[in-house]
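Duplicate of #3305? Posting structure anyway:
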């Protein structure tokens, strides 16, 4: 499978709400980049909404959407986390956490009612968010002798690389990032220049 070097996420946090038979479902969406971010957001919400009955959530991480999780937090299995995650999938989002906080209104909604409530609340938070497309980049380091500096800089400029760090001594080092789909091209060009070594960092 060819790796797509773009992905969709949200640019900032957003909020939604859904009400049904006295129950309130407050939905909050957050851009996140790691499980540490997620734990921090969840801890903050549990403190802020400490009197709520349930804090159900779903998240997806990574450009390849390889890390994800759903949590029903005491609701019947499959009625909360999965419907929330379904909304993340339907919008093809990643690097996002959606938490739906329920204040119980005293009347049970039943399985279909719960699924609809969590799905609708999650969708409202996403609808209130700004969805953006981001580019996946990778980092390389190139090492070479000083006389090759102009040749190396010319390649970096032509391939639209973003220089992150550079050391100019007898042996020079430049760390740069580049759009993933351009990685093969710039690697091939440097490998064809005698005296230049390129290493993929991330």
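Output from current build:
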């Amino acid at each position: 499978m060819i790796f797509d070097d773009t992905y969709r996420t949200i640019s900032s946090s957003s909020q939604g709400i859904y009400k049904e038979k006295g129950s309130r479902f407050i939905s909050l969406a957050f851009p996140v980049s790691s499980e540490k971010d997620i734990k921090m957001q969840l801890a903050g919400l549990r403190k802020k909404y400490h009197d709520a009955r349930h804090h159900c959530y779903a998240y997806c991480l990574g450009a390849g959407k390889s890390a994800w999780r759903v949590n029903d937090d005491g609701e019947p299995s499959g009625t909360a986390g999965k419907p929330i995650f379904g909304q993340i999938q339907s919008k093809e989002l990643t690097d996002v956490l959606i938490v739906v906080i329920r204040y119980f209104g005293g009347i049970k909604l039943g399985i279909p009612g719960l699924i609809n409530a969590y799905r609708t609340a999650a969708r409202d938070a996403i609808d209130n968010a700004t969805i953006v497309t981001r580019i996946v980049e990778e980092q390389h380091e190139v090492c070479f002798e000083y006389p090759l500096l102009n040749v190396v800089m010319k390649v970096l400029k032509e391939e639209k690389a973003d220089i992150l760090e550079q050391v100019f001594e007898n042996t020079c080092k430049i760390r740069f990032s580049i759009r993933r789909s351009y990685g093969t091209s710039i690697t091939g060009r440097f490998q064809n220049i005698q005296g230049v070594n390129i290493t993929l960092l991330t």
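Confirmed duplicate; merging threads. The CA atoms of residues 146 and 170 lie 6 Å apart. The domain at 137-200 is CATH 3.30.70.260 (Alpha-Beta Plaits).
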